[in-house]
# Entry
Amino acid sequence: MEKKMKHLDFIQLVITRMNANSFLLKGWTVTLVVALFALDISKTSLSFIKISFLPEFLFWVLDGYFLYQERLFRELYDDVRLKNESQIDFSMKRTSNTRKFFGAVFSKTLTLFYGALIATTAYILFRGAF
# Structure
């Protein structure tokens, strides 16, 4: 049972790291967008607000990747949990699926967070343009 517990601990550490990366990425996204808004306050061209769409979309996909990896490791955790002690080989291999990746990117939580951020940016852009 000791081998199984150690393997589950390894997997749980990776899951925790993916979750922490996702949390930090959300913080960096908001910080970067607010910084670009602050740079644009002194200008009337709205160029920094337009530029802020790029990191919002890129960070959305990257955050989706972390969520995708976290889900894969959760599946691996469930697989290892059901194995016998003799079958434990400390493998960290996961099976990937493109459909699952897009499911993670467009999950409810990420769509709400990044969608609200993009909608706010669009509102500020169009409000300032008129």
